[in-house]
Write a structure and sequence with these properties.
alpha/beta; 11 helices
């Protein structure tokens, strides 16, 4: 078996490499979390249904809590679904540019991986993808939407078409959906083999807490829930998640600011670089002189996401001050002799 190895992110410099929220939780929420610690029975296992947490998320997504499964980040749910539906002799269909953990989990279960080729700077041809999918006849289809790392976004009609044409589970990873419009959750009642994963790591600033959700139809969740690992979320994380979701409106302004900052990058007029318009909290930058650009980022203390052998890099939208450093580097780089 060939095991895919996923490389974790660097934790040094100005961190614009992991698509995290650039701001820590507000002081008021952090104080509420501190006060709540006194209510936790540390000597007891968590309440396995995570009712408080799922009810809080239900209020955000307007899906019944009975159709929501909490887990240790959306990564755990992705691994759970791959382990449930795939194995040796079965194949996962994903995109040539997508989240590397898909490969990690599929290889862990000795499943085959089929990649649909995508151009990072072009919109995916859904008709062609459907033809490719039907020719390959996979056992699961999985992709992120918005896509990581391109920032491309498939609308509801396109996802509906994929689901209608698929004869296997279709999993949509919506880790960045708060920065776009139109969640596949609205299709759950129409697509009986659709599964959606969500996370609190990005828009809600809880990457250090590790909380994710799996959502599907009631029938699917009734079948999956008994198979899920028990006590997947520790009591502290569950309480933090419930508190943060209670104050979800406080994150709306942050999300809007991130989207505005993101869109300003796309309006930059540069000769040596191309910036991909994005529907996530990051941008993709392409240049033939990618090594010189990434070196310039490093010299200015910026840690970004590099891709070995590729002519592009991914940069997370940070605070306005951090974004200004990125812009200054890009403008300076653009003025250099080619």
């Amino acid at each position: 078996m060939s095991q895919f190895v996923y490389e974790t992110h660097s934790q040094s410099g100005i961190l614009l490499n992991a698509n995290e929220n650039p701001w820590n939780l507000p002081d008021s929420i952090r104080q509420e979390i501190k006060d709540a610690l006194d209510t936790i029975a540390f000597n007891r296992y968590p309440e396995d249904s995570y009712q408080e947490l799922c009810e809080a998320y239900s209020q955000i997504v307007h899906i019944p809590a009975s159709q929501i499964l909490a887990g240790n980040g959306s990564d755990q749910h992705l691994g759970f679904l791959i382990g449930t539906f795939l194995g040796k002799g079965k194949n996962l269909l994903t995109l040539s540019l997508d989240f590397g953990m898909y490969d990690y989990y599929a290889s862990s279960y000795d499943a085959g991986i089929i990649k649909y080729p995508v151009d990072p700077f072009s919109k995916m041809d859904v008709d062609d993808f459907i033809h490719f999918m039907q020719d390959q006849d996979p056992d699961m289809v999985l992709f992120s939407n918005p896509n990581n790392p391109t920032g491309n976004f498939l609308d509801l009609a396109e996802i509906q078409r994929i689901c209608d044409a698929a004869s296997c589970p279709v999993v949509v990873d919506e880790a960045y959906i708060e920065f776009a419009q139109g969640s596949a959750l609205s299709l759950l009642d129409r697509c009986d083999h659709l599964y959606v994963t969500r996370t609190l790591s990005k828009a809600y600033g809880l990457a250090g807490v590790r909380i994710g959700f799996l959502l599907s139809s009631q029938a699917n969740m009734d079948a999956l829930r008994p198979l899920h690992v028990p006590y997947a979320v520790n009591s502290i994380s569950a309480k933090i998640g419930a508190i943060v979701l209670k104050h979800a409106d406080l994150f709306d302004e942050q999300i809007e600011n991130i989207k505005k900052e993101r869109d300003r990058f796309a309006m930059l007029s540069l000769q040596r670089c191309r910036i991909k318009p994005s529907q996530a909290n990051f941008i993709l930058i392409q240049t033939p002189a990618i090594q010189a650009l990434t070196q310039a980022f490093k010299e200015n203390g910026l840690t970004i996401r590099e891709y070995k052998g590729k002519d592009y890099c991914r940069v997370t939208i940070g605070t306005p001050e951090e974004n200004q450093i990125v812009k200054d580097v890009l403008i300076s780089f653009d003025k250099e002799e080619q």
